[in-house]
Design goal:
The chain has 10 helices and no strands. Helix 4 crosses helix 5, helix 5 packs across helix 6 and helix 5 packs across helix 7.
Length: about 290
Amino acid sequence: MKATPQFRCKPSSRELVLQATAEAKSVASATKSSSDPFVPLTPREVRKDAVARILSQGGDPGNTKLVLSQSTLQFGRYRGQTFKWILENDGGYAVSLVAAHQKEREMDTSDTVYMANKDALASYACGFPKVAIAVGDRRARNATRAMVSQSGREDQQVVGFGAHKGQTWQELYEAIDKERRGESQAQKPAAQPASSQPTPSVPAPCQPPRTSASQSAPTLSSSATKSRAPVSKAVSRKERPSLAFSNDALTDAELLAAVEDMAPPPVVGEPQVLKRGESAPVSFPIKT
């Protein structure tokens, strides 16, 4: 004879199955439809009845847990059923009953028949870790419901099952929303990699070179002067434009033309060959 009930657990998480069995539903229905009066037993009578049941099955009446397992409920839909049977067939009812009784005991210290019977059931049920965890979860959910009813914030209700057990509705919604955002980002097309071919560069507009007043205009060497073709007619100084230095940009053609105009006018006629050490004569136009 064993004092430990045969719990029904979920294969995946090993959590207690809290739903009632078909046998429990049948017993609850029969109790509800029964018109026979039920007289609750005192704690002494409940213990005496449990010891007699243990002795009839060859058990040890000195085993406290075994005696509690064979003690019977004295109220409710399962009155007359042992504590062990209730845990095996309707764990949810036992968990709810114990959680409510623990809350009740915080304010009520009476020692009535029903309170003593609930004390015995709570002592037996919470001796098993799985039941104790389920009772703690149920009390947390009950406290949250009371807070929600006062504040009106339904998002603070606690999930009591599944992978998100123990989380509030708000935490569950935020977690699902993050997952949805992650999925939407994953569904977006990936950015196309940059092409390995170089992008054709657009040539910048040509800018003429800028000259400043501090820069001197280039002068033509004597060899360059000699190589120029002879000019048949001398140009007067009045007709030659002067080179004005400014910050305005000049093109190469304009700069070269200006420099050529500043050069002394060549002598009309055959080119004169100079000896070493001699300088070329300079002719000045006669003003009229």
